[in-house]
Design goal:
The chain is of the alpha/beta class. The protein has three domains: about 55 residues, Orthogonal Bundle (434 Repressor (Amino-terminal Domain)); about 140 residues, Rossmann fold (3-Layer(aba) Sandwich); about 130 residues, Rossmann fold, CATH 3.40.50.2300. The chain contains twelve helices and 14 strands. β8, α9 and β9 form a beta-alpha-beta unit.
């Protein structure tokens, strides 16, 4: 696995002296404001913060680490805590951090890619020692490009990485997750083995999620290997609470699917609920499978058929990897954890 580079392309950083000149105060005053280390007038503080914001200045996190000044705090940025997969990850993450004497500062983006830079900036302004984050799309992320350029220690959770820089060189960013494409291929192959030939991929905002695209690629792999035609994904909002209209349109077609493969468990559970509200039976009328393996799926009746990824272990491993990066160790590419299939009762053999 290629090593993750920690020598990004050089970029000029605003200095504390430039902030002081813009704000019309001394360097010492800027330092006191940014470090909350002394009395400063409200007027001076406002001037410093406005100057820092307009210049895009943030105290150098790596330089502070080299001086041995640590807050023993990690910043954690997740899309949401409503989705159980992220709550399970956070539980493992927080437990691992506490065992190493670290606290965490958490913020969420609400699945909004445009919020990622501002949310991560707020975390960094709290002088965290590094970041653990899940972004919408790790393959084309301005935020990750910025963190790389500034040398900020970070680890991605759930994202699979491999991005091409301006020199057309593919580089891997530090990340922890499962092989989304392979896992999805195995689940769809299972549905094919059950006799399903018309399988629909259901995703949440497909074009905005690298995980959904990787899982769709796995769906395509399995369908192509079986000699079956692939279908365009049925795309739904991340926060869908009622998908009956979309399902009715899908099932009204001549070649209506006999099985649905959902890109995450929360979406699968929403689909199952709404199919039942429409008077359909799962799995007798339509088989449904998900992806994530959240524990609540085991409490369903029947148990949810899904790809199980070790969500808590992803959080724990992310902490271990971030500590290694902070200590100056080289990150040897992404950490890919083992997944399994839960062959529950929401998918069954197709009866002609």
């Amino acid at each position: 696995m290629p090593p993750h580079p920690r020598s990004p392309e050089p970029t000029r950083q605003t200095t504390i002296r430039e902030v002081a000149q813009t704000a019309g105060v001394s360097v010492a005053t800027v330092s006191r404001v940014l470090n909350a280390s002394g009395q400063v007038s409200a007027h001076a503080e406002q001037a410093v913060r406005q100057a820092a914001a307009s210049l895009g200045f943030r105290p150098n996190l790596v330089g502070r680490s080299l001086r041995g000044v640590r807050t023993r705090t990690f910043g954690v940025m997740l899309p949401t805590l409503i989705h159980p997969v992220f709550a399970e990850c956070l539980q493992g993450l927080e437990s691992a951090a506490q065992s190493q004497g670290y606290a965490i500062t958490l913020s969420t983006t609400g699945y909004r890619a445009d919020a990622e830079e501002s949310v991560s900036e707020r975390l960094l302004q709290q002088r965290v020692d590094g970041l653990i984050l899940t972004v919408a799309d790790a393959t084309r992320s301005r935020l990750l490009d910025k963190l790389d350029a500034e040398g900020v220690p970070y680890v991605l959770a759930f994202n699979q990485t491999g991005h091409t820089n301006k020199k057309s060189v593919t580089r891997f960013r530090p990340s922890v997750g499962v092989d989304n494409r392979k896992a999805a291929q195995q689940m769809v192959a299972h549905l094919v083995e059950l006799g399903h030939q018309r399988i629909e991929f259901v995703a949440g905002q497909f074009m905005q999620s690298d995980r959904s695209r990787q899982r769709y690629a796995g769906y395509q792999d399995a369908m192509t290997a079986a000699g079956l035609p692939t279908r365009d994904p049925l795309e739904l909002p991340f926060d869908s609470t009622d998908v009956r209209a979309e399902l009715q349109d899908l099932l009204a077609t001549r070649d209506a699917p006999t099985a649905l493969f959902c890109s995450n468990d929360q979406l699968a559970m929403t689909v199952i609920r709404d199919l039942r509200r429409m008077g359909l039976r799962v799995p007798e009328d339509l088989s449904v499978a998900g992806f994530d393996g959240v524990r609540v799926g085991e409490w369903m009746s029947p148990v949810l058929t899904t790809v199980v990824q070790p969500n808590a272990d992803i959080g724990r491993t992310a902490v271990e990897l971030l500590l290694q990066i902070i200590a100056g160790e080289v990150c040897m590419g992404p950490a890919t954890l083992h997944h399994t299939l839960r062959l529950g009762g929401t998918a069954q053999r197709r009866v002609s």
